[in-house]
Amino acid sequence: MVQKNLIDGEWIAGSEAFRNINPSNTNDVVGEYARASAEDARAAIAAAKAAFPAWSRSGILERHAILRKTADEILARKDELGKLLSREEGKTLAEGIGETVRAGQIFDFFAGECLRLAGEVLPSARPNIGVEITREPVGVVGIITPWNFPIAIPAWKIAPALCYGNTVVFKPAELVPGSSWAIVDILHRAGLPKGVLNLVMGKGSVVGQAMLDSPDIHAITFTGSTGTGKRVALASVEHNRKYQLEMGGKNPFVVLDDADLAVAVEAAVNSAFFSTGQRCTASSRLIVTEGIHDRFVAAMGERMKGLVIDDALKAGTQIGPVVDESQLNQDTDYIAIGRQEGAKLAFGGELLKRDTPGFYLQPALFTEATNAMRISREEIFGPVASVIRVKDYDEALTVANDTPFGLSSGIATTSLKHATHFKRNAEAGMVMVNLPTAGVDFHVPFGGRKGSSHGSREQGRYAAEFYTTVKTAYTLA
After folding, report:
1. What architecture is the 251-433 domain classified under in CATH?
2. Is 163 a catalytic residue?
3. What is residue 389's predicted lDDT score, i.e. its pLDDT?
């Protein structure tokens, strides 16, 4: 059965279908999904535009009920949906279920936000005049999501868009359509009016481009590569629309001489290699001061020897496969580049064979790297990390900030002085102390600086900055 696109409240077949393949077992077809055309995308945009007037003025209890019902079903089906996610993306079953729970929590949070919509009433500087400041929905929101978090990222974009009264045209990554299709189906059955949420699966060059070209999309939120993000920005400027970009990262994790070694190693392994390193918040630069460097490298090697790399659905698997052949080739190319640049491959980096054919890669750890190497400058987006030796904290901070990106930054230290200074001076949108660089709660803002992000933050109450526009109204008493 081919899963269809949702346009104007109807499930619509595309002109062709594409297959969703399990990276843990390439013989396993997760499902077949309809590929939307540019014409389908334009129809979805028209439907969202037509639905906006009524939905933008809908009652807060109606929106609350739909989002809450969606949250309840996602959480009730967390094992089923988590397994689907792990089958199509390759992260471990525990990670897949955890991500699904996070999606449910996000919808639950924004169901509550529907009931907390607020403004301000202020006195004017002039006598007998009142001032009201309110937030209104932006309009039709285009949502373009990546493959690495196929249910959480759609959730944290769709939920606030609907909460604040916007209508949506949603294009998920073609590589992982299953989880996105599932949450759209849940929202549809939860009672969304036709046209409020439209799903158009397919190629970015076709569907995504039709969205960028349309003057009837009033805001676009995008998570993906830096190159595509720049194209989104240029197209949005032409149409004078709001745009929000979450792009790459080359996140540092600093380990100081006074760090608790066990804490530092566990945080570094989690940051660099869990979710197969396929997280924009992953730490691929491990910046280590010379007093602890050798002990840290030795402990990392021992910890990495014990990592279980296997089928994402197998009990005990800690790291699943790379998402597809293209990404695997990119990872192995960067491993070769690191060797050519003079870094030492201290551990891993080998292709692995398991019981089923899949894209298995042993996590790789480079030592003797410098911050000028390509493996230290460019986002690899795989289980590849480099250790950079530095003299002291001051040099560590300088190297950590010496990057065109600024999403997440971490430090392992027992010094309150250094932890406090690092939190203030790390040039990143998120800072972690004695914790992995990846992992943010569902109710707090997510986003970065420099080349990592553009626009207001995602998640939590800060989402209102993007999904609403502010109106100031004056009244003569």
Report:
1. 3-Layer(aba) Sandwich (3.40)
2. no
3. 98
